[in-house]
Every structure is written in C-alpha cells, then in structure tokens.
Amino acid sequence: MRLQKLTPQRLWILLGYTAAAAALFSAPLFVSDFRLNLLAKFLAFAIVALGLDLIWGYTGILSLGHGIFFGLGAYAMAMYLKLEASGGKPPDFMGWSGLKELPLFWQPFQHFGFAVVMGIAIPALLALVLGYFTFRNRIRGVYFTILTQALVIITTTLLVGQQAFTGGTNGVTGYSSLLGFSLGSPDTKRALYLITVVVLISIFVLCRFVIGSRFGKVLRAIRDGENRVRFIGYNPATYQMVVFTLSAAIAGLAGMLFVLHVGIISPSMLGIVPSIEMVLWVAIGGRGTLIGAALGAILMNWAKSEFSTAYPEGWLFFMGALFVVVVVFMPKGVAGLVGQLKFRRKRREPEHERVRNPAV
Amino acid sequence: MEVYLLQLFNGLSISSILLLVALGLAITFGLMKVINMAHGELIMIGAYSTYLTQNLFNDYLPESMFDWYFVLAVPASFVIAFIFGLILEMSLIRFLYGRPLDSLLATWGVGLVLQQLARSIFGAPNVAVTSPSWLDGGMKIMDGTLLPYKRLFIIALVIACLVSMYFYIYRSHEGRRMRAVMQNRDMAACLGVSTRRVDAMTFAIGSGIAGVAGCALTLLGPIGPSLGTYYIVDAFMVVVLGGVGKLVGTVLGATGIGMFNTLFEYWTNASLGKVLVFVCIVAFLQWKPMGLVAMRTRSLD
Known about the structure:
heterodimer; A: mainly alpha; two-stranded antiparallel ribbon; 4 strands; 71% helix; globular; B: 301 residues; mainly alpha; LivM-like (chain A); branched-chain amino acid transmembrane transporter activity (chain A); membrane (chain A)
C-alpha cells in the first residue's frame, strides 16, 4: 500500500482507528470480567466477519460455509484443551462410546503448537480443495453458495454421527488449562482478551494490506466483471481460490479464540444457522468495508445477547425482518449509509464506475 | 433379492419426495434466477394446511367422511401455498431480480419469520396428522416385502404433478410464454409477453407445488415449524445436479441423488452416506459444471 497524503479527512479516520484500538486495549480496566468475556467472544466473531467480507464484499463470493471453517479451528483447539485437561488420556466422551485408546489423529493434538497450526491449516486446506474443484470449472455465484451450504450439512452430520471421535451433539467441553494457565482465572481471561484484540487488529491490517495491493484490485475486478478479468488475461480461479483459502484460515483462527473464551464447541455452533448469521453481520455492517463488517459482527452479537434471552420469539422475527430490510433497502449496510451521508456532496461516482449487480 | 428390491423401492420413494420438493425450486430458479430459501417454509405451510383441513373435517363433518379429507387437503395445500407465493413475489421477490445472492438472503429472512409465525400459531412441538385409513397397510409383492401404500401414493402424486407440469410448460399458451421468458427475457418482452405476469405466475405455481410436497410429507411423520429445513438443501443439490431450465434434468437429478443416497447409506451409514453423495456431486460437476441437462445458450454468464 502506498503512503498517501495526509488530508484532514484521512487524519480523522486515522484518529478514529487509534481511539477504537485504545478503547479495546483499555477495556479490561473498566469492564467487569463477565462483560469482558462477552466482548472477547464478539471480537472473535468480528475476525470471522473480516474474513467473510474479504470474499463476499471484495470478491463477490458468498460462502454460507464459514461456520464450518470457524468450527474446524475451534475443534482443533478444543482437542488440545481436552487432552490437556485429561492429561493425555482418552477424553471422557470416548469412554462413553466404548473407545479405550486415543485415536491416532487425536494424538498430535497434545502439543499446543500442532493444534494451532492445524486450527488454521485444516480449514484452509478444506477451502482450497473445495475452491479448486469449483472455481476451476467456473462453478460460481449461487451454485457455489449452495455447495458451501451442503458442506455445512454434511460436516455437521459427520460431527454428530461420529460420536466416539468428536463428542457428538454435546461437542467438546470441560477444559481446565491452557499451557498450564488455568482457564478459569480472571488473569488468564484478561490475557486472552488482549491476545484477541491483537489478533483482530493484525487481521484487520492484513486485510487492509490485501485489499490495497494489486491482488486486491484484481479481486474487486473479479467481483465487478469476472469475464472481463478473464479476457484481460488473469485467471480468476486462482485469485478466488487464494482469497477463499485465506478467508477460511482467518475463520479457523477466530474459531480457536472463540473456544478459549467460551469453553465449549458443539455442532450446533457451526451449523447452517450460525453460518448464515455470520453473513448477516457482514451485510448489516456493510459489505465492502472492513470496519463495517467488524462493527456489524460486534453490534449484532451484542444486540443478540441483550435481547434474545428476554424476547426469544421477538428476536427471530427481528432477525428475519433485518435480512429483508438490509438486502432491499441498504445493500451496503450501515457503513454504506454513513458513507452516503458524508460524501453525498463531495464525490458522486460516475455512473459507469458504479457496481451494477453488487452480489452477482 | 428382497433386500435389493426393498432398497430400490426406498430409493425411488426418497427420489420422489426430493423431486416434489425440488420441482418448484427448479422452475423459479431456472426462470428467474432467484434462490428461494423460503421454499422450505412453503412446504411447511402446505403441511400445516393439511393439518388444518384434517381438523376442520374432525370438527364439522361426520366421522364417516373423515377418510376423504386428504382428497381435499392436496388442492387446499396447493392453493394456500400458491397464495403465499404470490404475495411473496409481489411484495419482495420482484425487487430482487438480477441479484440471486441477495434474493437468497432476503428469502432466508422471510423463512425465519414464517417459521417463527408457525411456532407462535401452532406451538413449537410437532403435530401429528392422521393419515386416511385407505392409505394404511401396503402392497405385498412377495414374502417379507411390503410396499407401503403411503409411499406408493406419494410416488403417484409426484407423477401426477410432473405430468401436469409437463402439460403446463410444453403444451399451454402460458407455458410457451414461460419458456420464452426463460430463454430470452428481453426478446420475449419485446414481443409482447408480460414478463411481470409470467414471473408472478411461475413463482406462485412453484410455491403451490411446494405446498403439495408439504401435504405429502404429512403422510411420513409428524410435522413441525422447521419441517422444510430438512429438505431444502437436498432440494437445492437436486437443482444444481440436474441443471436448470428443463424438467427432465430435475427428474434425473432427484432420481440420482435419491438412489445413490439409499445405496451409500445401505453400504455405510447415514452420515457417511451423505458425505459420499456430496463428493459424488462435486466430482460430477467437474465433468458437467452446468448440471446434467443444461439449457443451450450462447451467452457467457
């Protein structure tokens, strides 16, 4: 990314980001431990939203399968935590299913480093394989979206079905410590929160870098006119594969952090509904703006935790209506609305530069 | 021998249900490039319509008439789902043409609201529909092999739907207009076809068939607000595999998925069977990315 001239407007934006980062870092000082844990969970979701925005907002690929990538990262971390809790013995749920010995693929997860690497590598690899077999054949748009949704269905059925290896419907829970630090202690929680903030900011910067680079320009070109990009001589499939893999890796990373904060992962947390909710966060915040996606994730989850327990029925009505309203009336989300207000007089996009079908 | 015959029949039965669910989807997607995620909820509406018809018969008509409620329930489900589809098209879908992914999200929202609505009206627990007594039992073809009348009835219902769809699409004036819009929307509009009316009509008919599917599903088990979600993704896979725009593609897609699903589940188990079917579909799309039967077109997208 080139260094650009510091106009007053840029200065304000920069100040805003600094203030937001400062607020996030200082939150442990004036927020209760319970709220901090909630906030940490929301920040983990914001990381997924960033990855999702990268492929949806900037490349025009809608994935309804990000719950799976998120979940695979979470399961990798959960396996490590479970083994640390049981001291390397087969976890309790294996015993219930009659499994006496630790299965081979569980064994390396005793090492923290291996679990972390796998938590990123497995989702990335799965995304790469799916991307390779779809984008190469120009299976895209709606077809791709449906395939990702089918991936969600079969992964959750597999996780539920192979109870001896995955803990079934109950998922994996009951952890004690991480690298010897007790997960229950407030100090560990605070440290984990700060780690999440650092990861969120790093991923944000990484996404900014990707989007500002030449690679990012090609991504936006693919979104706006895939065939034109192809005729110029690029191979869109390669770009789509790379960005889809990157996005899945980010989701896996977020999943690992999520498990550390929440202390449980089960198939219901990565099914169809959570996956499509992730898309809603990005849609509400504003696809095509990173800050919008992250804020959308945080705000939606905050609203959900506030209202869904008090009015469970009203919440579902509200969420359903939100889908419709956002898609029909504000396709660029809240960030788009703010942008419209601010830049209405300053800059009017010429008609030919505007994206005609933002999601096609 | 009997085992294979029974598996074959099971496969046929699953295929027929998939076909009934996917039929409406294939039409709306093929014609309008709109992904209707609320299709599952239209199935649910059809199922609850059957439930209501049953209750009406129970309450207001003599018991001897009860067995015939199902004859009325099939058209009733069709009509009610048809009306819901028409309302949905006129109030929402028409603003989303040319934005398939957006239509997917918006209709998902509609589905969520409809599900919650059903939960508020009928309650969250499943309700049971008593199937008419003339569908109890089955046809005995040899020792130990019994083909249940219910499943045979569903297969017959699917064939009836298919035949009427065929006559509607290929042998009627409305169908001709529909095919014209499907092939070249702008040209059809230039020649005086009201594409708006064709769209609304087609969407409503697709929804009506979903209602019939819901009616058929009441024969197989209790129904609940989230009935449709079990079938919707499989139905979409049928559309992806079969290709859009032709009935025969949908038929082949549904038969393929239904048969292979039964086969794999028989060989392995339920969860691994689903994985294998998915792998097969992705592998198949390597060979024919547009599905089994693709409409020939010279346009790029």
